[in-house]
Amino acid sequence: MVTTTTRIATPNGRRYMTQLCKHWAHKFEVAYDENQGLVPFGPDRRCRMAADADGLTLVLEVEDAAQVERMQGVVIDHLKRFAFREDLGEPAWTT
What we know:
Layout: E1 2-9, H1 13-24, E2 31-32, E3 36-42, E4 45-52, E5 55-62, H2 68-82
Antiparallel strand pairs: 1-5, 2-3, 3-4, 4-5
Protein name: DUF2218 domain-containing protein
Pfam family, one: DUF2218
């Protein structure tokens, strides 16, 4: 399993996390509260989120290393759709 993490600095981290979780809850069995969320995209990939007053931390866990960049793009593209009023910059993913 490949794990990559990024931190997005924003005062709206909790709101964005909740929006992402609600959005994906239509397709996946999402679990979340006001501070953390889990989106199981499949048995071989998931996104864990943690939000606080200063930002949003995203942790992607992907079985197939060839899918890591694609999944990073999916998560960030969806986040940017919800954060269209705010410039979140480019995320720096670390493994």
